[in-house]
Amino acid sequence: MSVTTVAAPMADTELDQLSIDTIRTLSIDAVQQAKSGHPGTPMALAPLVYTLWNRVMRFDPEDPLWPNRDRFVLSNGHASMLLWSVLHLTQTRAVNADYERLGQPSVSLEDIRRFRQLDSKAPGHPEYHWVSGVETTTGPLGQGVATSVGMAIAQKWLADRYNRPGFAIFDYDIYAVCGDGCLMEGVGAEAASLAGHLGLDNLCWIYDNNHITIEGNTSLAFTEDVATRFLAYGWNVLRVGDANDLDRIQLALGIFRETKGRPTFIILDSHIGYGSPHKHDTSAAHGEPLGEDEVRLTKRSYGWPEDQRFLVPDGVREHFAAGIGTRGAAARREWTTLFESYRVKYPDLAREIEQMQRRELPAGWDRDLPVFPADSKGIAGRDASGKVLNVLAQSVPWVLGGSADLGPSNKTTLTYPGAGSFQAGNRGGKMLHFGIREHAMAAIVNGLALSKLRAFGATFFIFSDYARPAIRLSTLMELPTIFVFTHDAMGDGEDGPTHQPVEHLASLRAIPGLVTLRPGDANEVVEAYRYVMQLRHQPAALVLSRQPLPTLDRRVYAPATGVARGAYVLADPPGGSPEVILIASGSELSLAVEAHEKLIAEGTRSRVVSMPSWEIFEQQPQDYRDSVLPPAVKARLAIEQASTFGWERYVGRAGHVIGMRTFGASAPLKALQEKFGFKPERIVTSARELLGRQ
Ligand SMILES: Cc1ncc(C[n+]2csc(CCOP(=O)(O)OP(=O)(O)O)c2C)c(N)n1
Ligand SMILES: [Mg+2]
Q1: Cβ(213) to ligand 1 under 6 A?
Q2: In ligand 1, which atom is closest to the CA atom of 283?
Q3: How far apart are CA 81 and CA 107, in angstroms?
Q4: Torsion sign (Cα): 273, 264, 129, 66
Q5: Is 340 among the catalytic positions?
Q6: What is the pLDDT of residues 369-408, one digit of tens each?
Q7: Residue 3 has pLDDT above 60, yes or no
Q8: CA–CA separation, 77 vs 553, rounded Å?
Q9: Beta carbons within 10 angstroms of residue 101's beta carbon
Q10: Which residues have C-beta within 8 Å of that of residue 539, sequence separation ≥ 6?
């Protein structure tokens, strides 16, 4: 007679602990195997992430793009193994760039074994677009929390526009986990201040209060009262004194969900490297493998088989399936049914939501874009931009944005009736007021774009430096964000060199994938926006003049639609075949045109190439590029009121650049143009010199 022994079913608390220790040991093993990474924080935060995902979050692992899912942001991105473990254990599915579900796991156990290796879906830091289920790229501390504020603004705006009685189409929450670093960084403070002001009660930050950063204890450099700071920002501040207390964590998250009118900040007291006998509570647990011996000792302390690596015990995946899997699937099913009846009742709104999710544009979106008549006095780039933005914000319902307190100068103010300001009491407002917080603004714009809104953020071009880390992430994430930078050069003369960009164009052009556009007249501004609006996976920076620029007569010169090719032949000598090429962007375009007319009059065969965007031009086929800049024509002159850095690639060794080699100065624009040589006469002289004529 054979006896079948049946193991007693495991109690839920045992499964909870087993799941948590699985996250811990997967993290430990992956870092040990990679010989690099950050084990200590995943060891400490496994209970938090477990509780949040398996007990609270509304997320269906079957469809990580379900629009009403709760968002999870790991702002302390170095703890990425938390995310890889939980995406693996919940069996989250992969999706592709066309938003199709692929059926395969987002993160496989093999990926985790190959943590931090080439092509692994478990890279060093969370990477949006690379791993399904990652809501935003993190790693530069502070970016994640700041981006989460954009996500929270987006949810409020979406709910206001699309929810109807009985139809809570958008009612999701945003959770962001952060460490000491995120709270030391200025961008975190900027974003927290704005979130408090806006009363974003759909936003919950959980602060890993472990008193440890890389150099040691936070007593070295971070001793402020964080709780009081967040109270002062207007947040609801809670404290969970033991990071291993699942019920307390769950309770705090429950209080968050019930809190109205303000965001929630949960201070979670934790121990980095929890369970490691020698590294617990030390910075040694932060950013290096525990070491083989310590791994064993740590596993022993968890009651884990010491020699097993990458172990996922029986019952753990099932436990996640029974928790988040079941809850998430039910939530998505309910939502899908709800959306079907919503579509019947509100077909237009449903269509908008679907278009927005696919990053498409509504029919006729560009019908009302202005056409500017020729005008020698002209209009400033920023003014033309303002007119365009006011059209776009009306023709594309989900276009919204604002400025870092420079709306009246950037001309980004939305002036049409009903545009409104987004505030706690007006969630449908299309105008965002970021305050003087450029860095948070750019991160928030990223959060809005991650939520599928078409968002813009504006400031003076000089202060793009203050936003640069988030612009870089925008590009890394392939988000269609729009950055509007006005006062593009020395046009604000009297403000002086602190306000005059020099190296900024070169620095933006150096970011791989970012589209930089510096249009040369009002119609080029329109065409620049037309191009940018059609981007689905690339951010753009529009660099616009403060001062009026002549609106070129397009019956005489080539149409501004050439902007869509990055650079185009604006003017040519009669019959073509130029001997010298003048290349210009922005405010220097009309100077080049003036010089060209003089050169033609004296019998010099000059061509003017308008080059608003290097990046777009580089994407054109070689024959087009050669037709604009014929290789045989070596006499080339670039004119741009910015650093000359990089122009060699277009003017060649035989060419010349009229640009900036120093900072500017404080004086009226005319005096500066004189001093720095941005005059048609200077262009004419340089062109003659290039041709060896006096
Ligand atoms: C903007 C930025 N500066 C510096 C770093 C390098 N860095 C990574 S983690 C870290 C320490 C973070 O401390 P904390 O946030 O407390 O994380 P913990 O060690 O507690 O997990 C630093 C300085 C970074 N990733 N981003
Ligand atoms: Mg810390």
Answers
A1: yes
A2: 19
A3: 11
A4: positive
A5: no
A6: 999 999 999 999 999 999 999 999 999 999 999 999 999 9
A7: no
A8: 52
A9: 14
A10: 449, 471, 474, 475, 479, 480, 481, 482, 483, 513, 514, 515
